[in-house]
Amino acid sequence: MNYSILDYVHIFKGQTPQQALSNTKETLQLADSLGYARYWFTEHHNSTTIFSMAPDLMMMLAGTLTKRMNIGAGGIMLPNYSPYKVAENFATLEAAFPGRVDLGMGRASGTDFLAKMALQMTREKMYELNTADQIQEIIYHLTGTFPEGHPLQTLKIPGTPLKPNLFMLGSSAGGLSLAVKFGLKFAFAGQLNPRQDLEFLNLYKQQFALQGHEEKPYSMLSKFIFVADTEEEAQLAALPAEISWMKMFMGAKPDELQLFSLEEAANYEFTLHELAIREQNRNRFIIGNPAQVKAQMEALKHTAELDEIMVADFYADQQTRLKGHTLFAQIMQVL
Length: 335
Prior knowledge:
alpha/beta, eight-stranded parallel beta barrel, TIM Barrel, 16% strand
């Protein structure tokens, strides 16, 4: 089973965006040396604590710093862009890093109403968009295969076809159905919908097989994963993320979701209500020492038709993060 990383580019407590980018550069190079299959960037807007606003720009940085693994967007949120611009950007990336580029496409805007309107620059586009038409148009642009008579048929991208690896992102049946329809790889956000992740991944493989696509199905699951030398250290490493997600479920604003330092998290006093919410969120996380995490990875291999596991990176400091990714790679190399 392949293994990979999803980077939110967190700005750690007391650090600057420049330091967040420096941390990502260091993590990229470590991951490339440890056998990670791919390294993706999220798309978030209107946040004071996450610096991954432009995943395609982050990918260009990542491509120059790595030699082996794929670089990707997890994802490009289609309501925020025109299909033509997505195709141009990813054709550029594919030309720069042939065979290493992943385009993960999301159905939602991934942000709040104000940022969504600012990104789209028109209120006309605030209404529901047809994601299937957007995906089809991106494929036409990247492959130069517009049908005769299409209104955009004369638009050109130099060097076409320049087609990256196409993934459909999802945490529900909607993303699954589009992956099946277009014969795309499917990345399921298990940290967002942990109660149905394995069910939908298995369903994807079953439905894909019925469509007769030339491409083979490929399934990926992302989870918040924390590994440390001991169970106690792993629980502490995960605690800032657990607190942040607990606060989000209690209605905290984006600028109130800064990851606590490990010391702050260790000293945090939960109310009974907060403990209950934390417990409800537990299945979003895989936490433990190497033996415990290895056992959970082996269980996943036996219960899901899964090709790849992706670490949704929510570590709260760089040292713990690098150690966690190193231990996880060692686990996956012997599975």
